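#dry-run=false #mode=assembly
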Amino acid sequence: MKKLLIIILFILFLWWLTPWYFCHGLKQPFHFSIYQLNLSSDNLVHNDIGTPFALIRFYHNKITLFGIEFITSYLLFWDIKFLVNIISFTGVFGLLCGIWYFGMDIFHKWYLKLLIILMILFPIVEIFINPPIVFPLKITLFSLPYEIFSLLGITKLLERHNKLKIFVLLTVLLWLTIWWHIALPWESLNFCQ
Amino acid sequence: MSVKNFLFGAIFLLSIILNFYHLDKIPPGLYIDEASIGVNAYSILKTGKDEYGVKFPLYFKSLGDYKLPVYIYLTSLSMAIFGKNEIAVRFPSAFFGTMAILVLYLLLEFILVKDPTTKLTFKQKYPLLFIFLLSVSPWFMQFVGPAFEVTVAFFFFYLSCYLYLLSQKRKNIFLYIISHLSFIITVYTYHSYKIFTPIVLTLILFNSVKIIKNVKNNYHYIFLTLVSLVLVSYSFFPNFANTRFLQTSAFPIVSVNNAIIFLRNYISYFSTDFLFSFGDGISRHQFLNFGVLARWTLPFLLIGFLAILKKNKSCLKYAALGLLAVGPIPASLVLPSPHSLRSLTIVVAYILIISYGIIYVFDKLRKYTKIMALTITIIFVYEFSIYLHFNFFHYANTTPIDWGGNYKEVVQNASSLSGKYPIILIDEGLQYASEYFHFYNDSLKPNIVKPGLNVEEQFGTKPKLLITGDLTGSTPPSGKLIRNVYLPNVNKNIFAQFWEL
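#status=ok
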């Protein structure tokens, strides 16, 4: 029963990605651009007429701006709205279960360590390099570590708790996920260009 | 004076300075709701009637949105002290926002005293850190100052919670009544509380029923809560009372998909995009490229969240997580979502978790206390000073239109020219101009006109003054341009033009 549920969930995750196949790439804020950085800097300095030069340098320097732009882009990949559109509602729940149950084990088991490293690194690669890979393939590869970690989290949840309760909870989540897909089929396109 | 009292005094003083400094100038002008509140409050003060002539109304028709009464009546009181000006309009928000810091401190101390799972040193540090972080939080600071009704509702909501808990401890029915009155006030102060307060009152009702099972003859508690629920429910009944909700509802049509739309809106309140990067995107609610929480708090939010989840049965855990779960419900029923103003109540939950995260990290990594404290202080001071720099130098330049353009100068110019021009006409393109005229100079009675109207036929041959928006590049009226009024931004864009007809 447990294996069947995990297989259903994996199929659901793949089905969930289908609207993304109509995309050509992620929107601009997901990527770092030196041109954008210069524009932001000009825009900020423009509003500082009459402000002492040292103060302008202190607040609107490229290092600070780079930090802000990087954090902004990076957080977009961990935004719950984005994650829900990549791995579904059930997937995000599984991700949280994974973080909760694995806790410090993450640093002791090689496969968990690998998944975490991939989840941390993939957004950085996309932000700075934006590899020229066909987007459907890119988004599938990108979502894979999240999906596997999420499935591992759900497996752990099923091992730890009263199965009936958890099965009911997962059924509700699955039902919500399918309903979401029907009600808001093109929601993921908000992140696309 | 103990160190604790000294620190509390210093934080409270900081909060006063941050909330009251240049109250009339930051933000740069009154936005339309503030002007409308001012007009109605002054009218109540002088005549006991609103701008439509209704005597002491429970709902103010105002701009057709039927404003709730509490803020307007409070502004009447403040106008009795300060006169009819920007400070008077914003004073209730700044005052109750600052007082909310005090109330939240007392509430948190009360919760922690009752919490047996919490260490003594934690109990001493935690409330101080919490009020400090709340005072300097962009989410809270942004709404304390401008005349946003939510700040007053926020104060009364947490005051009622505190008084309720106190009444339970002291078995004092008087405090219980005051707490319920305070709950009722929230509902007549800000719309979100029409949903939020009944949820809390229902929880109180369940709690009272539970108490009854243990202690006999305490039926008056249940009775009072039921009366409060009835009074709160009354706020839904007049048809026009729901105008604002109907204008902004996320569910214009009845559909099975509404539950999913609600869910989508609900999760947006936990989005990092909203919390740390862009806020809700409404310029009146935050600065460009600023979220509602400071970026440096992100790691502590995550750590605090996990640590508080792992905490065993603790009042603090239930308060923070309960507030976080229930807080976004009212704001998720309307659009746009997320909306930082409508969800201000949950800033407390976020700051509770962040403060918990900071103390937890310091507790776990005692060896590195000094280096961590130094690093966090440097990052905090830098980010907060950037915030203040935006507040004092950028905000007026980037958002003048959001704060009413430059209507004050328009009215001042019209007043100085009114002797020469007995008839003042305003082009209808200058939206809400008449409300600003009522606020800044009620003796001028301008007429709103449509473009292309034959003014000679309608208003005779006396000299006329026509005030329009920026007509550069479009067909000017058949008259002479007398002067321009500019926006207070760097580009000095034209906001209004004065024409002699």
